[in-house]
Structures are given as C-alpha cells and as structure tokens.
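Retro notes (design track)

What went well: tokenization of the new backbones is finally stable.
What didn't: we kept losing track of which sequence belonged to which structure.
Fix going forward: every design gets posted as structure first, then sequence, in one message. First example under the new rule, 284 residues:
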C-alpha cells in the first residue's frame, strides 16, 4: 500500500503510540485533572522552549494572532482537563473513542456556524458517530456513568474547537506553534488553579512524580515534537491513517494491561466509531 517507510513515517508512528499510552500514566497520578493538565503544559513548554533556543527559532505574535492563540490554548487546556476527568469515570476505551469524535464534530460545527456544505459521506459519519456514542454509553443503570460520558464529549468539543481555530491562523512552524500553545495554556491553567483554590499540586507524592514528569516530557514535549516534525513531510491521507494508532493503542492497553471489561453494546459502539473515522478519512 505504501512505499518504503521514511524517517517521517517512523516519527508519526512513534508519536501516535506514545499518545496512546497516556491513560495509564494519568491514572497513576492521584491529583486533580487540572493539576495534571497544568503540569503537562508547563513541563512541555519548558522542554520545547529549550529546543527552540538550540534551533534559534523565534516568532513574535501579531495582534490578531494573540487572540487566536489564547482561544486555542484555552481549548487545549479544557481538552486535557475533560479527557483526564473522563478517564476517572469510564474505561479508557470508551473515553478515547468519545474523544476521537472530535474531527467529525468539527465538520458539524463548520456546517452550523460557517454554512459549509455536507457531503453524503460526512452525513453518514455523523449517523454512525451518533449511534456509536449511544451504544457506548448505553449500560446497565448500576454501571452507567453519565459524568464520564459527558466529560469525554466535552473533551471532543474542545478538540474540535482547536481544529476550527486552525483555519484562521497564519502558517507557523509546528514546533513554534506548539510551544506558544503550551506556554499560554500553562498560564491559563495556572490562573485557573489559583482562582479555584486547587492546591492538590502541593500534595503530590514522590512516588507520583516520575509519572507526572513522563506525562510532561515524553507524552507532551517529545510526542508533539515528533508529531509536528513528521506532519510537515507526510501527505494528509497518510497522516490520517497513522492517527488511528493512538486510539488503537489506548484500547489495546485498556484491555491487556488495565484489564478493563467491555460489554457487547460497548464493543459494537467502538466498532461503529472506528468505522465513522475510517469513512471520514477516506480519500479516493
């Protein structure tokens, strides 16, 4: 199907696998989701700023870019808070699949707010996504957790907003873009922690610190660097195909390592969501 794999292919594959291993690390840090998100953005921003110094890359934001960057960073911060919160209430597989409805949700929002036409294929994606979400969240009353499902969908909404905001931004190197987003998101999350009087960061134990450092350095700085570096050299269809390694890795880990169970209804919902994603990314 593909020609011989190049360095950018391996970088994208590795980045997606790293993203897919995030959930077990989050579950080993017993603190608030906002604290984990703040630590992740802060550590990631510091590492990327150091990388930019070595590469001697600089870029100042114009007035119009600042507003877009703040909005995008706020959506990024909310995205991680809701996703980490979802991990606490539903299985990793369910949270991941709900989260990955974001690209399809972005299309729907584009249709509503920007009046972009929808194709029959896109409408089919919406229908499969809706049915898949219903099947995933349709559980016995004793096992149903509405909060976890809502948190997963909120994370998807924030991710969709990030995708929509990209259309208004001027081209910028991926490393610079990520560095700015993480830096602003860290500031916004820091303000949120102060306003909400969240002091859980002060109570993080030494045993949890390695997990938190790994989330910030490996799952954020390294993974995003690999992702954006590869994205500049890969075709869109190829990148879209590799992106499914993220939810696939997360789901496999949830079953094999976290020993999470999956009902027949949930399994059918996951299959439908995967089908919607493949249909969405398909290009002739």
């Amino acid at each position: 199907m593909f020609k011989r794999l190049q360095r950018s292919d391996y970088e994208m594959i590795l980045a997606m696998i790293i993203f897919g291993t995030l959930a077990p690390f989050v579950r080993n840090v017993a603190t608030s989701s906002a604290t984990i998100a703040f630590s992740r953005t802060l550590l990631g921003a510091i590492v990327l700023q150091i990388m930019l110094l070595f590469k001697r890359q600089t870029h100042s934001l114009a007035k119009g870019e600042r507003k877009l960057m703040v909005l995008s960073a706020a959506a990024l911060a909310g995205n991680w808070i809701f996703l980490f919160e979802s991990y606490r209430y539903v299985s990793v597989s369910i949270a991941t699949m709900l989260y990955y409805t974001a690209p399809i949700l972005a299309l729907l929002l584009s249709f509503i707010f920007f009046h972009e036409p929808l194709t029959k294929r896109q409408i089919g994606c919406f229908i499969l996504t809706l049915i898949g979400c219903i099947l995933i969240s349709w559980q016995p009353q004793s096992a149903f957790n509405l909060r976890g499902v809502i948190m997963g969908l909120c994370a998807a909404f924030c991710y969709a907003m990030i995708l929509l905001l990209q259309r208004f931004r001027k081209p910028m190197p991926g490393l610079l873009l990520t560095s700015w987003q993480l830096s602003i998101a860290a500031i916004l999350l820091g303000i949120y922690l102060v306003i909400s009087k969240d002091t859980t960061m002060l109570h993080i134990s030494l045993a949890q610190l390695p997990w938190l450092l790994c989330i910030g350095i490996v799952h954020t700085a390294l993974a995003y660097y690999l992702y954006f570096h590869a994205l500049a050299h890969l075709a869109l269809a190829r990148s879209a195909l590799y992106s499914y390694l993220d939810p696939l890795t997360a789901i496999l880990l949830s079953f094999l390592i976290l020993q999470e169970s999956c009902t027949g209804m949930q399994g059918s919902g996951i299959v439908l969501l995967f089908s919607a994603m493949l249909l969405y990314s398909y290009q002739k």
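Added context from the reviewer: Residues 63-89 form the longest helix (27 residues).
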